[in-house]
Amino acid sequence: MKRGKGEAIDFNPKILYCKNMHGKTFVFFGIVGSGKGTQVKLLQEFLKGHDGRECVYAGTGEGFRAILESGSYAGQLLQEKMHQGHLIDDFFANAIVADILSSKISPEKHLIVDGYPRTVAQSEVFEEMMKFYKHKDIKIIFIELSKEEAKKRNLLRGRHDDTEEGLEKRFEEYDKNVIPAMNYFKGKPGYTIYQVNGAQKMEDVHKDILRVIKLA
Length: 216
Known about the structure:
Blueprint: H1 13-20, E1 25-30, H2 36-51, E2 55-59, H3 60-69, H4 73-83, H5 90-104, E3 110-114, H6 120-132, E4 138-144, H7 147-157, H8 164-183, E5 191-197, H9 202-212
Parallel strand pairs: 1-3, 1-4, 2-3, 4-5
Helix pairs in contact: 2-9, 3-4, 5-6, 6-8, 7-8
């Protein structure tokens, strides 16, 4: 778009910063009951007020819910897997995240990834996605919480699927698949894992996250 003669150019530092700087990328990991979902929302709100840039949320939960509610055969199969406490097949998770990124991401936008990757195979695909979209500084936020505290929190919620047996199964899958998925990025150029104590009050966890990612 051409500017008219004598038209002023806006050299506002905040605008120039937004145009020239690549959006930040955050990936959340945490055991069920760690408060990960709450911390994702708090970081989204903070980023919006921090620089006003749009934040793309890439969470597999919403994609899975849409499939479950569709009444399709795929939805029925997913329901069976979830009731048994199994992780969803890699291709489903990869497809959901890839679809979100292809339709919503652009260089200046922040990206928050939640609930993915959850297996080493998914981590490998995610790494390729980040290369493709030229994201070079990925901050992994690991909200650490003991299984004992996680179990207590989940049982207090009183949800029908939060039984001791069901939780043990989810904890087992977490240790077997999710932790290795996170550890896949240890020592990789462009990836940093930040460990945060999830046993604190919600506000303190949020403050710690901002501190370690240097936004406080």
